[in-house]
Design brief:
The longest helix is centred in the C-terminal third of the chain and has 21 residues, at about 265-285. Strand 1 (about 50) and strand 2 (about 60-65) form a beta hairpin. The protein has an eight-stranded mixed beta sheet with strand order 1-2-4-3-5-16-6-15. It has a four-stranded antiparallel beta sheet with strand order 10-12-8-13, with helices on one face. The model has no long low-confidence stretch (mean pLDDT about 95). About 35% of the residues lie in helices and about 25% in strands. The protein starts with a helix and ends in a 5-residue tail after the last helix. The chain has two domains: about 5-175 and about 300-385, Zn peptidases (Aminopeptidase), CATH 3.40.630.10; about 180-295, Alpha-Beta Plaits, CATH 3.30.70.360. By secondary structure, the protein is an alpha/beta fold. Helix 4 crosses helix 11 (about 370-385), helix 7 (about 205-225) runs antiparallel to helix 8 (about 265-285) and helix 9 (about 305-315) packs across helix 11 (about 370-385). The protein has helices at about 5-10, 10-25, 30-45, 105-120, 140-145, 150-155, 205-225, 265-285, 305-315, 335-340, 370-385; strands at about 50, 60-65, 65-75, 125-135, 160-165, 175, 180, 185-190, 195, 230-240, 245-250, 250-260, 285-295, 300, 320-325, 345-350. The chain is built from eleven helices and 16 strands. It is elongated, with a radius of gyration of 23 Å. The structure holds nickel (II) ion. Nickel (II) ion (NI) binds near residues 102, 104, 136 and 163.
Length: about 400
Amino acid sequence: MPIINRIAEFEAEMTEWRQDLHRHPELALQEYRTSEKVQARLREFGVDEIITGMATTGVVGVIKGTAPGGAIGLRADMDALPIHEETGAAHASQTPGVMHACGHDGHTAMLLGAAKYLAETRNFAGTVYVIFQPAEENYGGGRIMVDEGLFTRCPMDMVFGMHNWPAAPENTFLWRNGPTMAAVADIEITVTGKGAHGAHPHRGVDPIVVASHIVTALQSIVARNVEPVEAGVVTIGAINAGTIFNVIPETARMLGTARWFKPEVADVLEHGVRSLATGIAASFGAQAEVIFRRAYPPTINDADATALTVKAAAAVAGDTRVNELAKPTMGGEDFAFMLEKKQGSYIMLGAGRTAADPMPHHPKYDFNDAVLTTGASYWATLAEQLLPRAG
Ligand code: NI
């Protein structure tokens, strides 16, 4: 069974939804318009119940089959990023400085497509929860929904996630068992020295020089402290200090990210960042304040649940177009919070971009509408396969 024909019939509609969301992106926990649009469509589809309020803008549509049975959750994310769009597309963001640069507009549209089909056909027994969560990026909307009772208010046997994967061929799937996406920590380091005239450095303690030594030293943590066969990343993504040619500022502030899979690696990274930053600062006569905030756990797919996703994906795309993701990725994903509490799996949907094309989180990235039907068909097939009608 390839893509679901009934879903293909509303591809144009899904494209319209997706491009409308793209025009009106909203940042984490502020997805008010998006949430309203999702609710309005679910109402129009005739779902049995719409649950709102979890994680501020979260929406769960409840769709019941023709008989009692099990329950599963299908999850999409709704938030955009603080990036100024440069695609030049007709449906480009109308909000300066905010854009759907990760394809969450497409994720929402695909799950809406599946919800429309499932509410119309009800060719399953049991309950499907379509979960539209806010704040996948940086604010852990998935964690907030779990904390606010997602799995108690919506009791389900398994939960599933999906992300577009531009680097894989269009309308293919990539699956992986076990650790798949990395755990994430946010790093903030504030170095406080002593300000001075740039011509009289001996009267101050230059926090920029101290920060430079810290950035260089942090590169040694993964290289020299993490066991070579294990995965770890420490990246400093921002340094802010000073304003003008000839003034040594008082402080320098750095922002960074750390990634890992194993808790013992997390401990090595955290200890390394803290001790190098504070030790180096002290040796220069400065002070470093270090925040190492463990934000997201690793995304770990359950093997049995993954096997079910592979079967559904193969039914839609064909066996040869469903492949194992060769290596885990150091990207983070807040679906990890749902997988901590509930059996489930997270699959990637190939979107056929080449290495030269802009990738997610780039100002020129745009979701590929040519995969909407495949993605929505996958969701609907997964539901029908996992919740079969008797006879
Ligand atoms: Ni994303």
